[in-house]
Q: What sequence folds into this?
């Protein structure tokens, strides 16, 4: 995803001279393509995220479209007040990019697990919050964020994620992407969990379950219409995210309650407590109940636990 | 420019705090807005303007007074400061004409000023960027990230003014977290440093008009000031960080200012 991001950003920078990239001394073997092509629009601010974010705000006030880039929590938590006051309050053209969201830095430990970012960022004013599922979504979202005035948060995975969508995928601000069309239940995921969802979905028809699958890369603005349709048409919703409490599941639960919908509903997400053991991203996901098998089981339970009023 | 008179009236009417902080930087703001900044009050977004960032946002009343006196908006607006529905908040608000940046949480203004200066420098433009910080504010680590950054990028279009009144919100700077020797700190970070009497109008004008003090380096102007300056019973008193003048105290203060003018 980070490769797709930087490739697209380079393409956009060729067309828009306002685009500026600021990193917090991270991005080795990723950002060089930008810094070599556009040295006047690149800055390594050093290991100083508060200053990095304040500088990004100042650059944006002088007319730049600024992307800040660092890993996991560093461009989010360390400088949260700069994001709130300097960037969001002033509604500036600053796009905060965190690479290695979720458990991508698995064995590096809890300091490197970006697992509260969606909750924290979704509380900020004026901010678009996005987490693409694959390189194709990443390219589309990067273009949207560069084009749309105002602040945004972009949570990326690391590198080498599989491509899950066709090349000609249409990505729209605040729109979910429908990946399959079943009507037995709806599985909604954000970010890289879509790959796990698709693996589970291969097995579901063997159990007589045909799921609707939505990739929801935009937490804010949320595709309320798609959520309500899912509730009305499929009667059951399973949300999946590589994040602790306060993310996608929470946001969708609020939407459902606000609109008076009560489908069978379950949130699959990380526990609140920090993960304290080593493991790959895949291993840690599984240990937290985010494996294809766990998804399969949750989907079955949801379908069997409700009145058989909805047929496909 | 009658910044002090406005401030006393505003904080009295609004029953608001930080009068000492406003009075200590009143002369700095008056000189900045009357003779130093290249600005167009009728066109606050003029692209050739100098930028001024009030990082010590709690001195907003003094900034609003300077902006009104300069013609960014009518002085009558000052009467509404802190009142229900007014845009003139207790901490600097960018919704007020002429205010570049909203502040109030300390340690935010200098990094933003660095970003502005960097953008202007990369575009080879002549605009200058001034940021006014309090001394207590220098406790914030974010400032020191920016103080390390600015000389590395040769931001000689950037000037920091420190309102060095030696009192922070809960005591004397020397007791809470000593800054001395502050000039040496900035010098060792590779800044050009000028120390002035922050109430001597000519010294202020001369220092602010001579930016950069050293070619190729950002400038730190350490303005030695007196908290509560101009009203004898407020001077150097911690409690006037918090108190609002009563009717009687307001009259005494205004009489004293009258006498001196």
A:
């Amino acid at each position: 995803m980070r490769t797709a991001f930087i490739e697209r950003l380079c393409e956009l920078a060729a067309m828009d001279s306002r685009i500026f990239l600021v990193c917090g001394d991270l991005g080795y073997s990723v950002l060089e393509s930008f810094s070599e092509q556009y040295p006047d629009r690149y800055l390594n601010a050093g290991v100083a995220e508060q200053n990095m974010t304040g500088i990004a705000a100042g650059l944006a006030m002088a007319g730049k479209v600024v992307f800040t880039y660092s890993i996991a929590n560093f461009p989010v938590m360390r400088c949260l007040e700069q994001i709130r006051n300097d960037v969001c309050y002033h509604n500036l053209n600053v796009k905060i990019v965190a690479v290695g969201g979720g458990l991508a830095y698995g064995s590096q430990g809890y300091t490197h697990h970006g697992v509260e970012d969606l909750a924290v960022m979704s509380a900020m004013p004026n901010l678009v919050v996005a987490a693409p599922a694959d390189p194709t979504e990443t390219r589309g979202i990067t273009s949207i964020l560069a084009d749309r005035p105002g602040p945004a948060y972009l949570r990326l995975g690391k590198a080498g994620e599989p491509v899950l969508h066709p090349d000609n995928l249409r990505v729209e601000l605040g729109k979910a992407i429908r990946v399959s069309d079943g009507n037995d239940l709806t599985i909604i995921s954000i970010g890289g969990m879509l790959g796990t969802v698709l693996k589970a979905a291969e097995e579901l028809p063997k159990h007589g379950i045909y799921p609707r699958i939505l990739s929801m890369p935009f937490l804010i603005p949320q595709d309320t219409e798609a959520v309500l349709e899912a509730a009305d048409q499929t009667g059951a919703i399973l949300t999946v995210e590589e994040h602790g409490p306060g993310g996608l599941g929470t946001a969708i639960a609020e939407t459902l309650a606000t609109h008076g919908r009560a489908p069978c509903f379950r949130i699959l997400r990380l526990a609140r407590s920090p993960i304290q053991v080593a493991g790959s991203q895949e291993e840690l996901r599984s240990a937290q109940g985010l494996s294809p098998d766990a998804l399969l089981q949750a989907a079955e339970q949801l379908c069997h636990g409700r009145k058989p009023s909805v047929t496909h | 420019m009658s910044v002090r008179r406005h401030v006393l009236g505003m904080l009295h009417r609004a029953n608001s705090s930080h009068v000492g902080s406003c009075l200590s930087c009143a002369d700095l703001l008056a000189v900045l807005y009357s003779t130093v900044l290249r600005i167009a009050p009728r066109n606050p977004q003029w692209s050739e303007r100098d930028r001024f960032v009030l990082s010590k946002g709690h001195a907003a009343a003094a900034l609003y007074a300077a902006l009104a006196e300069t013609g960014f908006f009518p002085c009558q607006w000052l009467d509404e400061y802190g009142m229900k529905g007014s845009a003139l908040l207790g901490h600097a608000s960018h919704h007020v004409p002429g205010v570049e940046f909203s502040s109030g949480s300390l340690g935010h203004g200098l990094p933003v000023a660095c970003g502005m200066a960097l953008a202007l420098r990369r575009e080879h433009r002549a605009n200058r960027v001034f940021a006014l910080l309090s001394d207590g504010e220098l406790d914030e680590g974010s400032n020191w990230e920016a103080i390390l950054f600015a000389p590395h990028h040769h931001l000689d279009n950037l000037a920091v003014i420190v309102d060095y009144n030696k009192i922070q919100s809960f005591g004397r700077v020397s007791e809470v977290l000593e800054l001395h020797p502050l000039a040496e700190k900035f010098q060792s970070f590779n800044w050009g440093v000028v120390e002035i009497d922050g109430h001597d109008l000519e010294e202020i004008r001369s220092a602010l008009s001579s930016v950069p003090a050293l070619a190729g380096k950002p400038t730190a102007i350490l303005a030695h000031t007196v908290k509560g300056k101009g009203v004898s019973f407020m001077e150097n008193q911690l409690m006037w960080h918090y108190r609002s003048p009563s009717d009687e105290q307001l009259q005494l203060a205004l009489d004293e200012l009258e006498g001196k003018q």
About this structure: The longest strand of chain B covers residues 158-164.
